[in-house]
Amino acid sequence: MSSYADRLKALREQLKRDRLDGFVVPLTDEHMSEYVGAYAQRLAWLTGFQGSAGAAVVLPDEAAIFTDGRYTLQVRQQVSADDWQYVSVPAISMAEWLGDHAPDGGRIGYDPWLHTRAWVMEARKELAEKGAELVAVDTNPIDSVWPDQPAPSDARLSVHDDAAAGKASAAKRAEIADWLAERKADAVVLSALDSIAWAFNIRGDDVSHTPVALAYAIVNSDGTADLFVAPEKMTEAVAQHLGNAIRVHPRAAFAPALMAFRDKRVAADPERAVAAIFDALESGGAKVLSLRDPIVLAKALKNPAEIAGHKAAQARDGAALARFLKWFEETAPAGGLTEMSAADKLREFRDATGLLKDLSFDTISATGPNGAIPHYKVTAESSLPIQLGQLYLVDSGGQYADGTTDVTRVMPVGEAAEEMKDRFTRVLKGHIAIATATFPAGTCGAQLDSFARAPLWEVGLDFGHGTGHGVGAYLSVHEGPQRIAQPYYPGGQSLEPLKAGMFLSNEPGYYKTGEFGIRIENLVLIVEKHIPGSEQQMLGFETLTFAPIERTLILPNLLTQNELAWLNEYHSRVVQIIGPKLDAEERRWLEAKCAPVS
Predict the structure, then answer these.
(1) What are phi and psi of 185, to 5 degrees?
(2) What does the DSSP assignment read for 235-272?
């Protein structure tokens, strides 16, 4: 395999052949996905970076990789400083950096199927000040120099049962048609893969850990739709499920179809549809309405069937995690475990449910110093032995047909230091503050974020990631539009009003570089709160995840009586919900783990 330096050199040579003075490499696909198929892992192939968010710019004499605070340590471990500058966003945007570093009069290439129109306009503006131009390429130059680039997945579509979805596709499309009518629009373009999966009640296997299929769709004002997907991905069962109101076309027919809306009003999402979609619609004479994909909010507001399914998945997943935690506590102190072997064992416990479809993301199995990397990804090369005196952080989840889970727990290997216990208890206090929050309808996640940080702020500490993200219903483990994060957090949608029916994660943390990491994560459901005498609608959270929170890491004297009451009630619920799924020995262990803390 060629070295990353060789790959960078090969790309620069290709850029010369293409008469380009630079090229922009985002970590996304034609659907603006966060998690992408192997064929679209261009940033990882070029740089070695394994994170789930980032981008790079390659110029003739310099190159830069752009990451946010979650990856400050990881990018320096995985990407060579000999070849790459590390740039932190949002402090410096990629467009700003281009404006400062691009050669005067240079031609900077970009793939219009991998960027939003807003980014293109911002980059053009920055480059124009140096007399440089942004040039759309027909063929991505990385694809020209990546000799063993995987082909896009040819996995077949599957039907997501209406009973699990809680609403038939026809009913969903009728609601989209109503949305179009309100806006006097003729059609809406759907390019986000989870939106398409939700709208048509289909799932796929084209992206690791996310049950979506590579497809595009157009929903029309009469409720009919056009689905663009590779023919080999169709099955008779899926064709029957889709019915006559959904016309199926080859994926390659999508771009030409966008050119056929002359004088029609067509909605497209400027955040989720790439620049090439807007370009094609406009060149075909369509009147483009830049509007948020109507499915984004509808998908986030879970219906009773999705909530019930999620709770069933959580009970099943919580029991598997409890079995793992028991095994880990009994096995780790003797030595011999590694981050990789522990992650494999956790997968075994989830597989043993008989219902696991996939993990919901690559398990973050991190001990000691690797725990201080919030989005650490264990590999055969990075896997550390798990040793006495360390904290072991495991952030993991499962994809089940009835729900998507995401949970983080921390376990000591032997006795933990007092500093570790103090930090763990402060993170727990922040977690409880979110879990018990009551707030008016219309509140956004940015207004709640400081609740989770306050116990750390009191001693001059903080954590460098958001407090909570949305979660799909047997879909993406990261789902918008809701988020709990500081308002400037990169990629954040933390100004979106929170609404009853949304799922969120609750995951404050603390990370001491080179030593340990702590995160406590449960998923929660936003519910209405009925408060006597209240003069407005109030909301709060119902916790959905049930697994023991490590009691030996808790300093009870740092918890208030109300916090202790929440913890003990939570652990009572853990025993009640996952206890019946365990054998007698496992249940005795669980009951001891969940005994009242005072």
Answers:
(1) -110, 150
(2) -HHHHHHH-TTEEEE-GGGHHHHHTT-TT-EEEE-TTT
CB atoms within 10 A of CB 175: 15
User: How many Å apart are CA 214 and CA 153, to the nearest integer?
Assistant: 8
Residue 16 burial (C-beta neighbours within 10 Å; 0-12, 13-18, 19+): exposed
Q: Give, as one character, the DSSP assignment of residue 338.
A: B
Measured distance CA(564)–CA(560) in Å, rounded = 6
Report the first-to-last Cα separation within the chain, whole angstroms: 57
Q: Positive or negative, the Cα torsion across 550, 555, 558, 563?
A: positive
Residue recorded with tokens 């179009």: 180
Tokens 């006559």 found at: 244
Tell me if 477 sits within 8 A of 397, measured CB to CB.
yes
What is the rounded average pLDDT of the residues 208-217?
A: 97
Instruction: Determine contact, residues 110/137, Cβ cutoff 8 Å.
Output: yes
What amino acid is encoded at 382 in this protein?
S
Helix, strand, or coil here: 71? helix
pLDDT class for 74, splitting at 50, 70, 90?
confident
CB 502 within 8 A of CB 526: yes
Asked if 314 and 405 count as a contact pair (C-beta separation under 8 A), the reply is: yes
Q: Which residue has the tokens 């009853």?
A: 500
- Adjacent-strand bridge partners of 161: none
Q: What does residue 566 show for φ and ψ, rounded to 5 degrees? A: -65, -45
- Quote helix, strand, coil % in the chain, to nearest 5: 40, 20, 40
- The SS3 of residue 230 is coil
Crossing angle of helices 561-578/418-435, nearest 10°?
80
Mean of per-residue pLDDT scores for the chain: 96
Model pTM score: 0.94
Among the residue ranges 375-384, 485-494, 553-562, the one predicted with the least confidence is 485-494
| Confidence bin at 227 (pLDDT 50/70/90) | very high
* DSSP code at position 211: -
Q: Is the pLDDT of residue 492 over 80?
A: no
| pLDDT higher than threshold 90 for residue 497 | yes
Rounded to the nearest 10°, the torsion over CA 568, 573, 574, 575 is 100
Of 35 and 348, more confident: 348
Is residue 288 within 8 A of residue 282, CB to CB? The reply is yes
Q: Which of 76-90, 479-493, 551-565 has the lowest mean pLDDT?
A: 479-493
Residue 431 main-chain phi, psi, to 5 deg: -60, -45
Cβ pair 134, 120 in contact under 8 A: yes
φ, ψ for residue 453 (rounded to 5)? Answer: -95, -20
In the three-class reduction of DSSP (H, G, I as helix; E, B as strand; rest coil), residue 103 is classed as coil
Query: 373-404 in b/e burial notation, b at 16+ Cβ within 10 A?
Result: bbbbbbeeebbbebeeebbbbbbbbbbbbbbb
pLDDT 10s digits, 442-471: 999 999 999 999 999 999 999 989 999 999
DSSP 3-state assignment of 414? coil
Alpha-carbon distance 196 to 200, whole Å? 6
